[in-house]
Design a protein that fits this description.
Elements: E1 2-8, E2 13-19, E3 23-30, E4 37-42, H1 43-65, E5 77-78, H2 81-97, E6 111-118, E7 127-131, E8 138-141, E9 158-169, E10 175-183
Parallel strand pairs: 8-10
Antiparallel strand pairs: 1-2, 1-5, 2-3, 3-4, 6-7, 6-9, 7-8, 9-10
């Protein structure tokens, strides 16, 4: 059976969905009753990310959504499923809109060399994908690229980028996370893209 509990003290406000041996299936934790969320993590989501995107995916998920309680949790005040869901949605929203990640394997500002792999919508539309040599693709939004589509990099261009954030889409149907990037340098109009380490 599934149970929902709430625990609170002066410094934390924790909500748990548990099954079996009081193991947290989902956890929503806040820094005090009105503070931002520190955890909005789901065990099934974490297992899916680990299976599909290896340890890097799991580390990025925990950097984004926090780490679930390890082992059985203490039983607190029982709450309704609806009350838990309200806390869960508030925590998930808080973590999705919080400041860029400063921890984990790819914190905000990390510089990476990648190869433009595909412009699926063509230059000037939506953005482009970057192969970083990782199990998760990079994506550059069009707002981070030159205004003129003629100045966008072609597929095969090697350039340096920095991490802006990591985006997850975990509502069914789930889709691959993206490492959102921005170029560290863009060329003057009509010039070739600079290769890393070269002027």
């Amino acid at each position: 059976m599934t149970y929902w509990f709430h625990q609170a003290d002066a410094g934390s406000d924790d909500w748990f969905e548990t099954q079996g041996e009081a193991i947290a299936v989902r956890q929503a934790s806040f820094r005090g009753p009105h503070g931002p969320a520190s955890v909005a993590s789901s065990r099934p989501e974490l297992a899916w990310v680990l299976d599909k995107f290896e340890m890097l995916g799991a580390q990025l998920y925990e950097a984004k959504y926090g780490e679930l309680a390890n082992g059985p949790v203490s039983i607190g005040e029982p709450v309704s499923e609806a009350d838990f869901e309200a806390a869960w949605q508030r925590a998930r929203h808080s973590r999705n809109v919080s400041a860029p990640e400063t921890g984990g394997p790819l914190p905000h500002g990390t510089r990476l060399t990648g190869t433009v792999s595909v412009l699926p919508w063509g230059p000037g539309t939506v953005g482009l994908f970057v192969d970083l040599g990782l199990p998760i693709a990079g994506f550059v939004d069009m707002l981070q690229l030159p205004f003129d589509p003629e100045d966008w990099p072609d597929a095969g261009t090697v350039a340096e980028f920095e991490v802006a954030t990591v985006a997850f889409h975990l509502e069914p149907p789930r889709s691959a996370p993206q490492i959102r990037l921005r170029p560290t340098a863009t060329p003057p109009p009509g010039r070739r893209w600079p290769r890393p380490g070269r002027p």
